[in-house]
Amino acid sequence: MSELSPELFRKACGYWATGVSIVTTVDTDGKPYGLTMNAVTSLSLAPPLFIICVDNKSDTLEPMRRSGVFGINVLGLGQQDLSNSFAKKNPNKFDGVRFDRGHTGAPVLHGHVLAIECRVSATYPGGDHQIFVGEVRHISLPDPENAQPILYFRGRYAALGA
Ligand SMILES: Cc1cc2nc3c(=O)[nH]c(=O)nc-3n(C[C@H](O)[C@H](O)[C@H](O)COP(=O)(O)O)c2cc1C
Questions:
Q1: Which of 1, 6, 58, 70 yields a CA-CA distance of 20 to 30 A from 48?
Q2: Is the C-beta atom of 150 inside 6 A of ligand 1?
Q3: Model pTM?
Q4: CATH 2.30.110.10 is held by the domain 17-154
Q5: Residue ranges of the domains in the chain?
């Protein structure tokens, strides 16, 4: 068995192929927040639950704790620039970004492959991240026939079948 170094662990995480989402929330004053995420997964069917894992250093964390809502916007092919932009710190990330306010108030981005709006039902510490469990309140599947998600593998974006 190979020795577990931080470098090996980071590299191994890169081999975990995922989709890419922008997870959004809204502060109590209505200001939108969001970050690019791949630590997103379904948890339970009944009740319908999703979990997301947010870094303790994320600027989105406190607004999410305060409002108790989040939106998972699964990105489609062609939204790589949006993914890169939301993966950097910037207090004005939403400038020029097209979105609607969802049922929870959290932004639902235009062009998503799937949007899942949640209300936080539990939060747990998880190392240097916080685990949010969200009860699903609304789902939007705009065009399931043509939905082409972006994938993420070894630090690079990819398309299905590529
Ligand atoms: C593909 C990809 C996946 C990421 N997944 C996560 C994640 O699951 N959780 C997390 O906290 N940060 C994740 N990040 C890093 C955040 O997007 C990045 O730290 C961002 O600057 C946080 O923004 P904020 O501080 O404005 O919330 C990911 C970045 C990329 C490019």
A1: 58
A2: no
A3: 0.96
A4: yes
A5: 17-154
